[in-house]
Amino acid sequence: MSTFTAVAARPAPNTSSGALAWCRANLFHDWKTTLGSLVIGLLLLAVVPRLLNWALVNAVWSGGYETCQAASGACWAVVHEKFRFILFGRYPHEEHWRALVCTVMLLGLILASCTREFWKPWLALLWLAVLPAYFALMHGGFGGLRLVETDLWSGLPLTILLASLSMVMAFPIAVFIALGRRSGMPAIRSLCTVYVELIRGVPLISVLFMASFMFPLLMPQGFSIDVLVRVLAGITLFAAAYMAEVIRGGLQAIPKGQLEAAATLGLSYWQMQRKIVLPQALAMVVPGLMNNFISTFKDTSLVAIVSLYELTGAMGMAMNSDANWRPFRIEGYLFIAAIYFVFCYSMSRYSQWIEAQVNKSKQR
What is the per-residue pLDDT for 361? Predict the structure, then answer.
């Protein structure tokens, strides 16, 4: 006859969720991780208080440059003093309302395009209506509005315009280039390959320099294309080359059996690409495409080389035009860095939302 033997008490299992469990798993998993966490923590304790004192406690939020020179903290008063110049650059001061309206209008169009409820056929018509209105209001010359040439467009409106239009126009070009690189026709495949390798083999600065200074030399006498159009075309073609390679990676990931099955069903080449191949390929490369979009948005700062002053260039002009505020340019650059971060982080989060929507079909 067996006798009952009590089991010795055992310790409770470690918590598998919550902040304590996360710290245990990520910061104190073993002695190496613990040592690294302690070293980084000590560095943060030494740096963060000083940074907070400089940025917040001892900072100057308003007043003149004399107040900033006497203070020991950051001079955020420079943003208060120069924010209109930073945001709108050389655009005429009394016409800043036009630049603001155009910026809000274009941002609203972009937000509508990113919202599922607005994915309707009339969205394309909205783009066709808003873009001409943007250019008309920015340029003026009618209805009593002052004429403002494109070389005076600068600041945040120019950054958003270059980034959004180049992305919109580069995407269809990239799709056709990616399909062309996988084409069975040697001439088309070779032409697309040469385009991609040629564009990717030079920096964007070279493309902008060619579009702004060299391209006009090749035009007939008396014929000229606006510098904004040339720069926009250069950024678009540059972004399309990189985007095409991202899309081509998604195309190569499609199993060959799906193509054979589509051909067996009698689908034409374009029906196969539109209904089977491209939806799956583009869903696979959403992170890569968004990375390309973010890179294009930040690369707009390079247009300063061709005398178009977007957000970064306008910031430089705002500081260089006034020697009294020039010592506090770091605060100004931190301000535009925050603007870039908001836009780039928003695009990153939207990319994650798109991925979640795409993955719903795989969870069924």
Answer: 65
pLDDT of residue 362: 64
Say which residue, 363 or 23, is predicted with more confidence.
23
Question: Per-residue confidence at 316, pLDDT binned at 50, 70, 90?
Answer: confident
Q: Secondary structure of the chain in the HEC alphabet?
A: CCCCCCCCCCCCCCCCCCHHHHHHHHCCCCHHHHHHHHHHHHHHHHHHHHHHHHHHHCCECCCCHHHHHHCCCCECHHHHHHHHHHHHCCCCHHHHHHHHHHHHHHHHHHHHHCCHHHCCCHHHHHHHHHHHHHHHHHHCCCCCCCCCCHHHCCEHHHHHHHHHHHHHHHHHHHHHHHHHHCCCCHHHHHHHHHHHHHHHCCCHHHHHHHHHHHHHHHCCCCCCCCHHHHHHHHHHHHHHHHHHHHHHHHHHCCCHHHHHHHHHCCCCHHHHHHHHHHHHHHHHCHHHHHHHHHHHHHHHHHHHHHCCCEHHHHHHHHHHCCCCCHHHHHHHHHHHHHHHHHHHHHHHHHHHHHHHHHHHHHHC
> Can you tell me the distance from the alpha carbon of 68 to that of 109, in angstroms, rounded to the nearest whole number?
40
Specify which of 11-25, 299-313, 328-342 reaches the highest per-range mean pLDDT: 328-342
- At residue 211, the pLDDT reads 81
pTM: 0.84
For residues 8-22, one letter each, b for 16 or more C-beta atoms within 10 angstroms of the residue's C-beta and e for the rest, the string is eeeeeeeeeeeeeee
Q: Check if the beta carbon of residue 92 is closer than 8 Å to that of residue 148.
A: yes
Q: What's the CATH number of domain 157-305, 1.10.3720.10, 3.30.300.30, 1.10.230.10, 1.25.40.70?
A: 1.10.3720.10
- Mean pLDDT value across residues 272-296: 88
pLDDT value at residue 2: 64
Q: Identify any residues that bridge with 310 across adjacent strands, giving them in sequence order.
A: 155
Domain ranges of the chain: 43-91+148-155+309-364, 157-305
Q: Which two tokens stand for residue 145?
A: 């509005």
The mean predicted confidence, pLDDT, of the chain is: 86
- Mean pLDDT, residues 43-59: 88
**Distance between CA 90 and CA 83 in Å, rounded?**
12
